[in-house]
Amino acid sequence: xxxxxxxxxxxxxxxxxxxxxxxxxxxxxxxxxxxxxxxxxxxxxxxxxxxxxxxxxxxxxxxxxxxxxxxxxxxxxxxxxxxxxxxxxxxx
Length: 92
Prior knowledge:
By secondary structure, this protein is an alpha+beta fold. Helix content is 34%, strand content 25%.
């Protein structure tokens, strides 16, 4: 997949719904055929993908929230994978 611009605005893909599932103690991505349990990092990224925030905004927010730096490549890699699986779509 091509490199995603840091100005791209990812949003949850059509047909999917993100929610916290207490029984799973995790964020899950629901779709008509089932459910995908997300790990902690994936859940933190996905819950910020609202179609309004850019990838740069999401990365900055995660770095501030978790008092770390250098998450650019990890966020970009996850977003690329989620786009390939149609979990996310880009809004410009």
